[in-house]
Amino acid sequence: MQASRATSRLALHAAHLPKQSFSTSRTVAKEIQDAYILSAARTPVAKFNGSFASLSAPQLGAVAIKSALEKSNVPADKITDVYMGQVLQGNSGQAPARQAAILAGLSSSVEAITINKVCASGLKAVVLAAQNIQLGLAEAQVAGGMESMTQVPYYLPRASQLPAFGNMKVEDGLIKDGLWDVYNQFHMGVCAENTASKYDVTREEQDDYAIQSYQRAQAAWKENKFADEIAPVTVKNKKGETVISKDEGFENLQVEKLKSLKPAFVRDGTGTVTAGNASTLNDGASALVLTNRELAQQYGSGSRVLARIVASADAALDPVDFPVAPAKAVPIALERAGITKDQVAVWEFNEAFAAVIKANEKVCSVHQIASAMRSILIRNRFSVCKMPGSTPLVELFRWVILSAAPVLVF
């Protein structure tokens, strides 16, 4: 009886509601648009506690964004969204991406989102921006990544969690929120060791790859190949102002010393990952300007459009196997792009260990991988985003410009 009365009341209420039409014949589908990268800029990469020690990640991000906008020729009022990858956000202040956007001179009405997907943060930021354009939701976007590993704080529990007396434990934010496998309770370097062991990547292979990367970075700087992408950073100090326009650390290669370094993570005699063939801690930022076809045609002629984003793909494995997750994404991306593996001119796998590159090379059966971060620059001396893949992306575009064939970046 009660159920019948309730049903009657609902029917009476519905009768008084305004009638709405839900047509299934209305066309809602839109044609997928092309997304183009018009410009790319990056700050130099500074060493941990180096030249950028006094600058926050948003301040570095602002420099990269401002430079990328200037290079693109796209008016600032065309930008509607900013996506910036940042892994270690502690001590950065509220809404880091929004800080970077406003400090770069963009309007306060521009939406900004900070992305954290660990090593893939910067790349995911680019994908999200590109999808907005592809879906026709935006004409122009900014995307990139930023990190100040130097300014990451130590953590101290709140008073309610502290013991009444005795010693207190202080945790390193760099480790806790950036470099620690929470599922297995060990350093990410141990994951790299597991990968090296599983795919038979030797210590010699890792060291040789690291040495090659250092040497290529040195040659690239000597030939001034990074001039077009560097956004100099002005650092204020007690002596006045210093302009930083060159990467730090890549000149420090000592081949014999690198080969003699002891394993950093597994020290039972089987370890192969060292401080020499793994990334260092760094500070820096990078940014891209993306537009649709119309704006690319309007503003890209003078700055030269760098690339068209054809497809993207995500993939995941057990957390301990994250180093080879890119290999799982490869066939998905290739299928979406409508190309085959042999049509790819350049492969770029973004990671913090030489073992990762060599393992993915084996899994994908790719005999020659040109990693922007490692092969051209500094074998991930770019740990600027732990690596969220932001600054290394800028390096990739030099390959895009030089190659008429497709490029894959993971």
Automatic annotation (TrEMBL):
One of its GO terms (cellular component) is mitochondrion. GO terms for molecular function: acetyl-CoA C-acetyltransferase activity; metal ion binding. Residues 304-366 form the Thiolase C-terminal domain. Transmembrane segments: none annotated. The keyword Transferase applies. It comes from the Eukaryota. Gene3D superfamilies: 3.40.47.10. Keywords: Acyltransferase, Metal-binding, Potassium, Transferase. One of its GO terms (biological process) is fatty acid beta-oxidation. CDD domains: thiolase. NCBIfam families: AcCoA-C-Actrans (TIGR01930). Belongs to the thiolase-like superfamily. Thiolase family. This is Acetyl-CoA-acetyltransferase, putative. It comes from Talaromyces marneffei (strain ATCC 18224 / CBS 334.59 / QM 7333) (Penicillium marneffei). The lineage of its organism: Eukaryota, Fungi, Dikarya, Ascomycota, Pezizomycotina.
